[in-house]
Design a protein that fits this description.
By secondary structure, this protein is α+β, with helices and mostly antiparallel strands. It has one domain. It has helices at 8-11, 17-52, 65-78, and strands at residues 89-94, 97-111, 114-126. The radius of gyration is 26 Å and the shape is elongated. It starts with 7 loop residues before the first helix and ends with a strand.
């Protein structure tokens, strides 16, 4: 076989140093975002599960707002959610219906003076037994 200058083997090279540097920077910054912001999302899922688990609780509609907040806070402590203030939970009663609103934000330092702010807002309507 005769090799010509248009052979595919002659054109194959690989990634240049600049391409590799850009790829490392991109994936490094993506990994940093996941490491810094991931725990806030995991805590939010835990908070949602703690509030949703109140559905069907015995005597929920007869409890006052401070008692319901305390019940949620105990569940969050058991699930190791730190830095969440129970004042960010508002509880309103409408007859037998209990409306629970969770509205909070998490600030996370990414690097130097750059912060990320994540805002979470949930609303639940539930009744006890």
């Amino acid at each position: 076989m005769k090799k010509n200058k248009f052979s595919s083997m002659g054109r194959q090279g690989g990634a240049s140093a600049l391409t590799m540097l850009v790829m490392v920077l991109f994936f490094g910054s993506l990994l940093t975002l996941v490491i810094k912001l991931g725990p806030a999302y995991l805590d939010d899922v835990t908070i949602q599960e703690a509030v949703e688990s109140l559905e069907g609780t015995e005597g929920l509609s007869s409890m006052g707002p401070p008692q319901i907040r305390s019940l949620i806070n105990k569940r969050l402590i058991v699930n190791n959610v730190r830095g969440f203030d129970e004042k960010q939970i508002s509880v309103e009663k409408n007859g037998e219906l209990v409306v629970i609103k969770v509205d909070y934000e998490v600030r996370s330092n990414l690097f130097r003076n750059v912060d990320a702010v994540i805002h979470f807002q949930h609303e639940y309507e539930m009744q006890g037994k």
